[in-house]
Amino acid sequence: MKKGVSLQEIQNGMDMKKIVFFALYITMMAMGWVGAQTDREPETDPVVLNRIDQWQDLKFGFMMHWGIYAQWGVVESWNLCNEPWINRNGAPYDQYKQEYWNLNRTFNPKDFHPDQMAAMAKQAGMKYVVFTTKHHDGFCMFDSKFSKYGVTAPDCPYSRTAQPDITRAIVDAFRGKGMWTGLYFSKPDWHCDDYWAHEWATPDRNVNYDISEHPDRWKRYVEFTHNQIHELTHNYGDIDILWLDGGWVRPEWSINDETRPWLGCYQRVQDVDMERLAKIARSNNPDLIIVDRSVGGRYENYRTPEKQVPDSLLPYPWETCMTMGDSWSYVPNDNYKSVGQLIHMLCDVVAKGGNLLLNVGPDAEGRLPQEAVVRMQEMGAWLDMNGQAIYATRPLYPYSKGDVRYTQSKDGKHRYAICLINEPTKKVSFALAVGATKVKCITPGCTAKVKNGVLTITSSKPMVHAVAVEI
Length: 471
Known about the structure:
Elements: H1 7-11, H2 16-30, H3 46-58, E1 60-64, H4 93-101, H5 114-123, E2 128-134, H6 166-176, E3 180-186, H7 215-234, E4 241-245, H8 274-282, E5 289-292, E6 319-323, H9 339-351, E7 355-359, H10 370-386, E8 393-401, E9 404-409, E10 415-420, E11 425-431, E12 440-441, E13 446-451, E14 454-463, E15 466-470
Parallel strand pairs: 1-2, 1-7, 2-3, 3-4, 4-5, 6-7
Antiparallel strand pairs: 8-9, 9-10, 10-15, 11-14, 12-15, 13-14
Helix pairs in contact: 5-6, 5-10, 7-8
């Protein structure tokens, strides 16, 4: 709950969501329903759990990787990293790095129209946004008093526009369309001298000095990180999701065989004190969802399989974060997935209990690529007709079988079969794995009937992508 909330504000209904949730939490603590827990354990706070349940109703979100790297049309930040798999097309590392750092001096997206972006996402049927406020390169797309490397800094030409704080523009625009707002933040900051110190080489993605020999320096970095988290969670209104990336910055207890290689040649444990970070983030927002990606435990409120859809139902809240093309950031002539692929993926993810967070990278001028816009429009048109079987649903066994995906309403009163169509057709049949004697086609213009477990759908015009049927 925000500090200093007056009785008059309470009576006026201001901050009421936070007040009610805070009161619920206090009551449960008093009754002994909520106890102390370690960071290794999943979240037990009923306020946060309730919010996660609401997030699971949204099903479809919009992600934007956007920063100075869009000017070169290269993979976001990673070319700064001196690891064997990085390709800089033969450019000398130190020269490349310096030229990359200088991209802040030319970043000036003159075609950035956040209200149009938000309108496109809403038309696409997306219910929340996750925006990259800072990637690993450390360039802040928000107004930070703790960094001189960002969009509002004097050496960035965009700072001289009427509204240079791009994060504020994004949050205001998407919130204005009724969408949840999520902020991506990279825990590692390669531009910060207390992470990549100028005195030493940067052999990999990790902190480049021995923390045990320079504890004060690491303490400064942790404080810097906490300060920027405070800015993001206190200066932009009621944020819904804090989406933390850079999983090699993690506490020692969370390191396992999968994540140990991420720590590079020196295997340094980089703990940013997530307990304190979370308290800062939620001090103004008690129901904030925190996603400390890949770390597990109390502060990874939902999991985020990257560029993959699980084979089956997962026993915890999750979200597939997926690129519409091949790259997270803007790349000219990217290879975009077809509308059919995207709709099938959304249906598959939802049937298995997940959300789909679909990423599109704006170009250097702030425009969404036209190929992506067209696909978003077509996905929205499909959801306008079939969204009843997607939004606010939960899995229905057997979830997925053949070309059929199964969902049900939260209360269990309505069951749906979403039939995936690979080629346009006026008639199609599917074997149902769920018993049904009566069916009703949700998709306008289509009729459905079931006999001996076989569902037949017909239409006067070709059906495309998928058809939803209540069973």
